[in-house]
Structure formats: structure tokens, C-alpha cells
Write a structure and sequence with these properties.
By secondary structure, this protein is α+β, with helices and mostly antiparallel strands. Helix content is 26%, strand content 26%. It contains five helices and eight strands, in the order E-E-H-E-E-E-H-E-E-E-H-H-H. Strand 1 and strand 2 form a beta hairpin.
């Protein structure tokens, strides 16, 4: 598992991320410091899944919306908490479940579950830790139209792999795209690079 660190505690959340309604299930398992902000979690999800961070996003923990406030989308009766100001350990613990919505047009909904909270061992020292512990299947291509459109794409891929429409979709997705492949090493490297370069705090 790739890890990166900065100064502070070494208590860790083990979090499973599932792309809702994906069949077969697209999932990732990450490790992240419990004191990380929801802004950091957003960036780790993007890197772990394989998204490009090109669209709006929102966390929902119970009735609380967390993200980047936007007057166009916010409910004035339930204002959005600023994600960089909210730490995971303020709202989450073992067994917590919550959602992460990415791209308000395509509506990619992710279900997150805190499977375990544990103490980091001495080899990590103190600091902000994030890493990828597992996963299966590729992230859908950006702007694929949402989970329904992506499932239709997978059906064409399976039942008519050489059809004209399938070929067009494969060209658009990238000729090296393989829906069954998850590159764990690449996801881990992306998280490491992001944290070491100071792109998130």
C-alpha cells in the first residue's frame, strides 16, 4: 500500500468506496488519517477512483452537506459546510456510512463506509497518511453520461464488441480502456504525488 505523511496523529480510517449501481461493482478501499479534512478525502477519492476532478462534488453525512459552497446549488435552509474546514473524525467513526456525489450532471454517486478505525504503526510515524489498499474494475470514462449510460456501454462491449457503435465508444473512451482493469499501483502513485507536492493540506 502506498502511503504519504505529514505532521499530526497516526489514527487511521479504513474506508470502502463503492460506485452505486455499478454491475459488476466498481470499488476501492483506502486508508486515510482520521484528522484529514473532507477536502483531502475528496482528492484521495478522485485519485483512487481515477476521476479527473473536472466537475462539482458534494459529500452528504446524514443531513449535513459538505463541499464547496455554491449559491447556484446550495439549499439556503441547509447550507453546505466548507469541506476544508471539516475533519473526518468530527463526523465519522467505525460503521459510519455516507455518500459522495461527483458531477451533478452525470450524478456519479459513491457510497462510503468506514470499515475500521485503527492506530497507525510506528513505521508511518506522525503525519497525514493516505493510501490505496485495494479495488476492482476501472473507473468509468469521464462524461460517460452517468451509471445508466455506462452500463449500456458495458452491455454493448460484451454482446457486440465489434459493432460500429461499440467501436465509436471505445475510441472515445481510449483504445487502452479496459473496464475490468484496476491499476492499483497507478492509483497509489497518484495519491503519493498529490500529497508530497502539497496539493492538499
Amino acid at each position: 500500500m502506498a502511503t504519504t505523511r505529514r505532521k499530526t496523529s497516526a489514527r487511521l480510517f479504513i474506508v470502502k468506496i463503492e460506485l452505486v449501481d455499478s454491475k459488476p461493482l466498481i470499488w476501492r478501499r483506502i486508508v486515510i488519517s482520521d484528522h484529514a479534512s473532507f477536502a483531502t478525502l475528496h482528492h484521495v477519492i478522485q485519485a483512487a477512483m481515477g476521476w479527473h476532478d473536472a466537475h462539482l462534488h458534494e459529500f452528504r453525512v446524514g443531513e449535513q452537506s459538505i463541499g464547496v459552497p455554491d449559491p447556484e446549488y446550495d439549499n439556503p435552509d441547509r447550507p453546505t459546510a466548507i469541506e476544508k474546514n471539516v475533519r473526518l473524525n468530527r463526523l465519522l467513526g467505525t460503521g459510519s456510512t455516507f455518500t459522495y456525489l461527483y458531477d451533478f450532471g452525470d450524478s456519479w454517486e459513491h457510497r462510503l463506509s468506514v470499515e475500521q478505525v485503527r492506530q497507525g504503526d510506528d513505521r508511518y510515524g506522525e503525519g497525514l497518511i493516505a493510501g490505496i489498499a485495494g479495488g476492482e474494475r476501472a473507473c468509468p470514462p469521464e462524461d460517460a453520461g452517468g451509471i445508466g449510460a455506462y452500463q449500456e456501454f458495458l452491455e454493448r462491449w460484451e454482446h457486440d464488441p465489434y459493432g460500429k457503435e461499440t467501436e465509436d465508444l471505445r475510441t472515445w473512451a481510449g483504445l487502452d480502456f479496459d473496464p475490468a482493469r484496476f491499476d492499483r499501483a497507478a492509483a497509489g502513485a497518484a495519491i503519493d504525488r498529490m500529497l508530497w507536492n502539497g496539493w492538499v493540506k
